[in-house]
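User: What would this chain look like folded?
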Amino acid sequence: MDAIRAFMGIGSVGGVIEVDEAFFRESFKGNHRKNTTFTIPRKVHKRGVKGSYSSKDEKRKRGISKEQVCVLCAMDITGNLITELICKGRMKHTDLERLFTGRIEDEAILCTDSHKSYIQFAQNLGVELQQIKRGKHKEGIYHITTY
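Assistant: Here's the prediction, encoded as structure tokens.
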């Protein structure tokens, strides 16, 4: 996460761009001493206390929820990279627009998974969209697992 933080807000991509998101459990472990303005937004969970869950548990809710953060990664064919935490829970086209505005070249082709937010995002930005069907990683010359 420190490597991602070092590159936040910089970089641009163009040409054929592979875009994918990953979800991580939100964690504030270790942050309370590093940042004096940091406040923990939820009750701390301790082991062995009735009604809490241990750090071994994945999360309380199944599927994608506000307990997870969405990190988006976009890389073009020349190796230019954008990677940032974009939201908590499910991403929306507005989250994508906020990340990519001014950072994506004209005439770009986005290769993405089948998430519906990419459709509205591509229409709003006027870029070509190649979505790969669920369960697949490649469709013709377009893929989302090269880089």
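Strands lie at 16-25, 68-76, 81-88, 109-112, 128-131, 138-139, 142-143. If you want, I can go into more detail on any region.
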